[in-house]
Specification:
binds 3-isopropylmalic acid, alpha/beta, about 400 residues, binds magnesium ion, single chain, 10-stranded mixed beta sheet, 14 helices, two-stranded antiparallel sheet
């Protein structure tokens, strides 16, 4: 494990601000972590757009090594651009050498088998952005399979087209298309992958006294993969007699969630539907500034705000850091630091309710730093000095 120093910290945390507003929000989160006096060593890791441009890799190998030595990681945000735009920004000596941009967060999820994407969405009382008061949903998103498996073809190799023609009658209308006239992305779902995410959702429900788990799918159309997911879910549900299970198509869930969010509790979904419904849920409790996630595996967990890098606001200390502060809170829960986690959540909720500081998304003029400081001050149960109301 860790060695060398005599004043060893209890935790070693990879600190991955990334780029864009990643730096702004992580700075604010750090002020809050320091306020709860987490006994941690924070080790900076290189990740993000500048490493893609300079090295052809947004997640350099040294950062992957770092992640093997830490208890957890906090990640800000990174910019990503479409393949051609990304290639255009590569250092001249790296161009045309076969580098392709891949999202570092998707890679971390796969490399470290961070199979649970946990996305709590709670309407903190008094948040002017709440769609409804009282929303308290938790999304469990499968995080390594499905349409994120990365098995994609465009143009489509002849060999694949021939095989699909032979095996799948519905492929007939596509069979004679020129290779570069279409593309194929494979949705791959395994029994093991489906079972373990659904089990994680039910275990969570049991542990936290939640009454219901809703399985989200589209098994009426996407029969093979979503059918398998639903079937595994039904098997798992049998082990949790005290928790209700229901299931619904993803399109219907999107309508019902907006209409009647209080009727839901824990939601579990394959990767892409989970991605989509978790944004929908986040918007109901304040949007980008409030959506936080944990990417959780057996050995490592990476916590992050769900929002992107918003390059146009980078360095302006304007955006809302609450999502990142709540991600840090989730990290503390995962480390077993429940009391510190609770203090952070209480502080967030107090600052939201009280409205001492509101960032622009909440209709205020407070800065990222002011929000961080206000929450840090609330952790210490003293009102921030010198921070004006809105
Ligand atoms: C998320 C994001 C990512 C995803 C992107 C940045 C690749 O939308 O974490 O939800 O699609 O998983
Ligand atoms: Mg997303």
């Amino acid at each position: 494990m860790r060695s060398g120093g005599f004043a060893m910290s209890k935790y070693r945390i990879a600190w991955l601000p990334g780029d864009g507003i990643g730096n702004d929000v992580m700075e604010a989160a750090r002020v809050v972590l320091d306020a709860v006096e987490l006994d941690a060593e924070y080790v900076h890791g290189d990740i993000g757009w500048e490493f893609w441009c300079r090295e052809g890799d947004a997640l350099p190998v040294r950062t992957v090594h770092l992640l093997k030595t830490v208890d957890a990681a906090l990640f800000g945000a990174v910019t990503s651009k479409p393949v051609k735009a990304a290639e255009a920004e590569l250092a001249p000596e790296l161009k045309r050498r076969g580098f392709t941009y891949r999202s570092p967060i998707v890679r971390m999820r796969q490399l470290f088998d961070l199979f649970v994407c946990l996305r709590p969405t709670k309407a903190y009382p008094g948040n002017p952005l709440n769609h409804k008061e009282g929303i308290d949903l938790v999304v469990f998103r499968e995080n390594t399979e499905d349409l994120y498996a990365g098995v994609e073809f465009g143009p489509v190799p002849h060999e694949l087209a021939t095989t699909l023609k032979r095996l799948a009658p519905p492929f007939a209308p596509f069979a004679d298309l020129p290779a570069d006239e279409y593309a194929v992305s494979c949705k791959i779902n395994t029994k093991r992958g489906s079972e373990r995410i659904v089990r994680a959702a039910f275990e969570f429900a049991k542990l936290h006294g939640r009454r219901k788990v809703t399985v989200v799918h589209k098994a009426n159309v996407v029969r093979a993969t979503d059918g398998l997911f639903l079937e595994e879910a039904r098997k798992v549900a049998k082990d949790f007699a005290q928790i209700q299970m229901d299931d619904a198509n993803v399109d219907a869930v999107c309508m019902w969630l907006v209409k009647n969010p209080l009727a839901y509790d824990v939601l579990v979904a394959p990767n892409l539907y989970g991605d989509i419904i978790s944004d929908l849920c986040a918007q109901m409790v304040g949007g980008l500034g409030f959506g936080c996630s944990g990417n959780i595996g057996q050995k490592l967990a990476v916590f992050e705000p769900t929002h992107g890098s918003a390059p146009k606001y980078a360095g302006q200390h304007k955006v809302n850091p609450i999502a990142t502060i709540l991600a840090a809170k989730m990290m503390l829960d995962w480390l077993g630091e429940r009391e510190k986690a609770q203090r952070i959540e209480l502080a967030v909720s107090e600052v939201i309710k009280d409205g001492w500081v509101r960032t622009y998304d909440m209709g205020g003029t407070g800065s990222t730093r002011e929000m961080g400081k206000a929450i840090a001050a609330a952790v210490g149960e003293t009102k921030p000095v010198g921070v004006g109301r809105r």
